[in-house]
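Entry: Major facilitator superfamily (MFS) profile domain-containing protein
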Amino acid sequence: MSDPLQRDRDSENGACAAHEPAVDRRNASDGVTAGSQLPSAAVTIAMLSASYYFNVLIIIDVILVMIYENDSGRVDLIRNWDALLVGQIIGQIIFGVLCDHVGRKASLYASAAVLLAGAVLCTAASGVHGISGLLWFMTIARGIIGVV
């Protein structure tokens, strides 16, 4: 075994000179490829999509208040937002554990699939028993969206 700092005698003055081991100096971006940037790009697009979707939800709620406030009251509309918040709490736990066990990429794909399913259900919501059925279906669909 050799010492990482090898010393030898300088022939002229008898001083010890230290030779440092070679260090490979590369740029931080040398190992970055288009494939390694794909998950970051997907997360960025998903966050922009979620922001847009929450904006749409707010607009939909304003329209529902204008149309159905006399029939359903504000309690049903507030329940929609509560389902979204409860879904977010559940989603943080589920996807946090999922990310730890199966990895970030699989967790990203699973969350995108859940978001898509919730968005389709929310879009397809219709009330079998009038406005009350519509708002309950939307509450469940928004809970699924909140999981993401």
